[in-house]
Amino acid sequence: MVEGIVVTDASSGERRKIPVTGVFIEIGSVPNTGFLPQELALTEYGEIVIDCSNHTSLPGLFAAGDATTVTHKQIIIAAGEGAKGVLSAYDYLLRTSPEAV
Fold first, then answer.
1. What's the confidence (pLDDT) of residue 99?
2. CA distance 4 to 90
3. Which of 1, 53, 63, 97 lies in the 20 to 30 Å Cα band around 40?
4. From first to last of its 101 residues, what are the pLDDT tens digits of the chain?
5. Which pLDDT does position 97 carry in this prediction?
6. pLDDT value of residue 101
7. What's the rounded Cα separation, in Å, for the pair 101 and 57?
8. Domains of the chain by range and CATH?
9. The dihedral of CA 35, 39, 45, 51: what is its sign?
10. Distance (Å) of CA 19 to CA 8, 15, 41
C-alpha cells in the first residue's frame, strides 16, 4: 500500500514527504510527433489535429491516442480511438481507388 510520496523541490533541493493513499502516474504528456510530415496540422502543443473519425489534415493519414487532440488522455480512451482509427482507415481504403492511395 502507498503511504506517501517523497518530492524534491527543483529550485531549492528540499525534500519532503506528502502523505497519500493512492498514486496516478502520468507519463508522455508531451506528444512525440516530431517525426511526422511538416504539412500535418498540429496544435501549439504538438498534438495531431483529428476529426471525430480520426482523419488528420492529410488524406489517408489517420491518428489515434494521446498524441492527438482527443480529450481525456487515458489508456482506455486511446484504445477505443485506435479501433476507430483502424475502421476509418479501412473505410478510406475501400472507398479510394488503388491509383489514389
1. 78
2. 47
3. 97
4. 899 999 999 999 999 999 999 988 877 678 999 999 999 999 999 999 999 999 999 999 999 999 999 998 888 999 999 999 999 999 999 999 887 66
5. 82
6. 66
7. 16
8. 28-101 (3.50.50.60)
9. negative
10. 14, 13, 43
Reduced 3-state DSSP string for the chain: CCCEEEEECCCCCCEEEEECCCCCCCCCCCCCCCCCCCCCCECCCCCECCCCCCECCCCCCECCCCCECCCCCCHHHHHHHHHHHHHHHHHHHHHCCCCCC
Predicted local confidence at residue 53, as pLDDT:
97
Phi-psi sector, 53: left (phi>0), alpha (psi -120 to 50), beta: alpha
**Residues 6 or more apart whose Cβ sits within 8 Å of residue 45:** 30, 31
Burial 32-46 (b: 16+ CB within 10 A, else e): ebeebeeeeebeeee
Per-residue pLDDT at 46: 95
Answer whether 35's CB lies under 8 Å from 28's CB: no
